Amino acid sequence: MMYDRAFFDQGIERRNTACEKWDDRNVMGEDGIPLWVADMDFRCAEPIVDALKKRAEHACYGYPICGDEDREAFIHFTKRRHGISLQSEDIAFLPCVVTGMKVFIRAFSKPGDRIAILTPVYGPFTSSIECNQRIAERIALTIGTDGRYQIDFDALEEAFRQGVRHLMLCSPHNPVSRVWTKEELERLLALCRQYGVFLSVDEIHAEFVYEPQSFTSILSLAKPEDAVVCFMSASKTFNIAGLQQAMMISYRHDLLKAMQQELIAGGGVWGNTFALAGTRAAYELCDDWLDGLMAYLQSNLEVMKREIARQLPLARIIPVEATYLAWLDLREYHLSCAEIAQRCMRTGVALTGGTFFGPEGEGFMRLNFGCPERQLIRGIERLAAALQ
Ligand SMILES: Cc1ncc(COP(=O)(O)O)c(C=O)c1O
User: Fold this and answer.
1) Among positive and negative, which fits the CA dihedral 216, 137, 135, 111?
2) CATH classification of the domain holding 35
3) What pLDDT score was predicted for residue 320?
4) With 0-12 CB in 10 A as exposed, 13-18 as middle and 19+ as buried, what is 173?
5) What percent of the chain stands above pLDDT 70?
6) Which of 200, 236, 263, 327 to mutate to test the pocket of ligand 1 (most atoms within 8 A of CB)?
7) pTM of the predicted model, to two decimals?
8) Atom of ligand 1 nearest to the CA of 246
9) Structural element, H or E, at residue 168
10) Cα of 246 to ligand 1 centre, how many Å?
11) Domain of 207?
């Protein structure tokens, strides 16, 4: 199979497949174009489909084990793609990354504790904190003169000084699309060490980084004694979020154990027969699909910039360093996210409202460009019609 432009151009029909992005009628009508939920409208790599079919054909679906080969597949992938050397004992399995965030919160903090997040940030960071009766300490990112978001290190240190002992970082950052540099991560780590802060780092978007940026994993900087937990998953990378599997990684095996105990106490399980088969195939056999995808996304990024400049002259795209999610500053249109969403519903396109990521997102919308080019162009036309 050639994972070339033609492969990604063909997309895949997803309507009426119980698919959140296409089939949620509260968000858009039947003929709507979804540029919202963070999955992609492309066919999966052939080895994943084959592995799932093969597993399905073995007509017995009893309890599986997460075996050495599942860990090995992940270890080899992180070594190959990021040069990180992990040991089997550094890794534990989870149903998904958001479960991991909740387990991190529950294992290392207590109700009423304040947990720092850098906002605007992926909504479940806040909801995971609040549904566990902790308090989200929102440290707002600032926008620099170059239009890129920056960490307010002074505000963060002040929060630590005031007793905050947990930080949940998104790296690369959804929705503002920053790839945190080695220097920024080193500075964060140093602060966490100084104040005894537990750090969780969500690296689910690690593969979607555009040149000239390069990704630095927290795992390449953390020391064995650091209270650092990292979450990774094949779900975004290979478009298999519906399979539900993720990994938590830490050099502190006592932390991993505490999180596993918390997961078990809450009734959580890991090891879904199909997730294991699909994820192993993804990590072992699908680098060519991923490389083809990145070339396609890079091209879509240019198309999006061109079309937005042409059709939405008042919009500003926050520089896209990573992810397939663009953060659009629409504040010059003087409409709330709710108003923009209503107008988009009428013109037949769906984006994610900026306020899903926190109050700092008012007037912004997040656009998912992980789709065939023609769909992206049509969606932008409809967004422009909505804002007229
Ligand atoms: C930053 C980030 N973390 C986690 C998730 C969800 O991951 P999972 O489905 O593994 O819970 C998403 C999905 O959009 C995301 O953008």
Assistant:
1) positive
2) 3.90.1150.10
3) 98
4) buried
5) 100
6) 236
7) 0.98
8) 10
9) strand 166-170
10) 10
11) 62-285
